[in-house]
Amino acid sequence: MPRKPVARNAVLDAFETLLIEVGERGATLEAVAAKAGVSKGGLLYHFPNKEALIAALLDRFDELAQEEVEAMKTAPEGAGVYFIKASVWDGGPLDRSFVAASRLAEVAHEETQRRFAGIQQQWLEVLTAELGEDLARAVRYMSDGLYFNAVLENGGGREMDPSKTDAEVESLLRILELVRGKG
Amino acid sequence: MPRKPVARNAVLDAFETLLIEVGERGATLEAVAAKAGVSKGGLLYHFPNKEALIAALLDRFDELAQEEVEAMKTAPEGAGVYFIKASVWDGGPLDRSFVAASRLAEVAHEETQRRFAGIQQQWLEVLTAELGEDLARAVRYMSDGLYFNAVLENGGGREMDPSKTDAEVESLLRILELVRGKG
DNA sequence: GTCTATAAACTGATAGAC
DNA sequence: GTCTATCAGTTTATAGAC
């Protein structure tokens, strides 16, 4: 694979960050260029228009989501436990990619919505293989709920209290274990 | 309480619909006015600026959320079961209000984020009283996950398959009953 | 590869007629 | 209460210099 220029990645990171922090509306080409340390013209050399910028973001999201599928399958603690733990916002690449992409889906960007559906379907299949349909769905929705709250609360870029979110995840894991022991 | 003019409510409904269907960016004053069947000037008579429009939307969201708290408390099937069932998108007033407001939260609108947090806190308290902390959190996140998916999938205004969503809710309710029987 | 300058379209908001 | 006309500020994108 060809080595991408540094500026290109800086632009992509800046776009992602702005989507997370100020939403789709605030992620203007000018704001992205400024955050990436290039001019608007320089940005548009690497990405001829805004759709190209979005496409690159979605490609990266797909890559990271694919890695996550593998990680789930090989996780020692099991796919379900791994998945819930991974759904807590920790500022990692997949979390950032997920939230940024969700901001685009929310403005009714059709291609983004399609990609999201595909990725979530893959995750659900791995969960179902381990947990069965009912519990897999429960885990999937709990994970989505965790992300939904990251999406809502992280708008202003404020940090989340790690001990608080840890306690929340422990709650969910206890429920998961309870059902596995019983079901 | 004073009777609000018809046009005013038509504008508010149009704003809500556009937020749901095309997102915050597409819900421009011009688009809202057109959908409500008034001119931009007419719209701005009732709502002096866009913030006023948002404020009215949030007030209605608060009202409906408050009614939901009461409905949860008095639901014969219990707050948890009622809450999960109510979290499925059915195009009702609270669902629409919730999704519309989430679109504003996603563009980092601070006041909207604050209101959301307050409402979710109230809902969680009712759930905790009935289910205990762990299960209440699980139910809360499953509900959020349900809404998150409504937010994502409903962007294009497409309908959801009722039988499919019904089956999904049954899945979640079985898990809930299982834990209640055990926990 | 990166910049400045600028065009073309759009958005929120004001002024004033009816 | 509702409309048309219009302005000022933004946003995406293009053209062309370096």
From TrEMBL, chains A, B:
InterPro entries: Homeodomain-like_sf, HTH-type_TetR-like_transc_reg, HTH_TetR. Keywords: DNA-binding, Transcription, Transcription regulation. Pfam families: TetR_N. It comes from the Bacteria. Residues 5-65 form the HTH tetR-type domain. Residues 28-47 bind DNA. The keyword Transcription applies. This is TetR/AcrR family transcriptional regulator. The keyword Transcription regulation applies.
